Amino acid sequence: MSAATAAPVTTAASALLTDPQRPADQRERFYRLLPELLADDPRAVALLADIGAGYVDLPPSVADRVLNLGIREQLLVSAAGGLALTGLRPIVHTFAPFLVERPYEQLKLDLGHQDAGAVLVSAGASYDMAGAGETHFGSRDVGLLDTLDGWTVHVPGHADEAETLIRAALPVDDRVYVRLSGASNARPLGTGPEMTVLRRGTRGTVVAVGPLADRVLTAVADLDVTVLYAATVRPFDAHTLVATLTEPDVVLVEPYLAGTSVPQVSDALAGIRHRVLGLGVGRAELRRYGTPAEHDRAHGLDVPGIRRSVAAFLS
């Protein structure tokens, strides 16, 4: 296919997506779901930047509504803005740093300033592609979107949640970001917009975001804390946080830049003396690529790291 002419994608699905012995992760579920979304909604059009082009099996009836623009991420978002202004509903997909960081100006102007809507679906999370290095690390995405107005941000923790959230985003016309990850909880826990109460305690609250919920529950198993689960982080569910609060000590465990949602917690608890600890991906660049598990350990996002941080904070 020619990126210069934005040719429709017509490739067959890879063996990876058709292996019945291997459960689909969030990204794979999206590729399987995409043809159905296009068939069900005549407004839907998918825009790719090479990523995913070899994994989508498209029937002829929808193939002309999937465009591969090549590795031109600014054009990817600009084209989405233009298509949205014609009444179409763009689904825009590539890795997180290429979808949010590289075309940030286009997100600000071609979608935000024009008040145009789109569904942005990223892959790779913070360091799923650890072997590819810093170019493919996406920990800053939610923080960058926080500088823009009017974005709904979903961080599903399971493929079922991802499908539900993507389906729900299509019929409307707003700006939605769905952050897909290779990590997963064992089962779906909720899709919001309200946070799910996973357990109740008296010594503080831990907010577990997306695919980190299972780790958080294991880490705090013997601690007397409330655990809330968030698959939708923007808008932030201040109501559930306040309604379930015991001690005004809150720990956020997020799979992107540490402290990203600390301002939202502080706003929710304005007027209440409180403490908040934001756990997540550290700001220091790790130049040894390693594996996702090694990055989790280095950032304190594995079970022992989360437990150490929560126990020390609440002590």
TrEMBL record:
Gene: fas3
Organism: Pseudonocardia autotrophica (Amycolata autotrophica)
SUPFAM superfamilies assigned to the protein according to its UniProt record, in alphabetical order: Thiamin diphosphate-binding fold (THDP-binding) (SSF52518), TK C-terminal domain-like (SSF52922)
Highest taxon, organism lineage: Bacteria
Full protein name: Putative 33.6 kDa protein in fasciation locus
Domain Transketolase-like pyrimidine-binding span(s) in chain numbering: 24-188
GO molecular function terms noted in the UniProt entry: magnesium ion binding
Gene3D superfamilies associated with the record: 3.40.50.920, 3.40.50.970
Phylogenetic classification of the source organism: Bacteria, Bacillati, Actinomycetota, Actinomycetes, Pseudonocardiales
Pfam families to which the protein is assigned, alphabetical: Transket_pyr
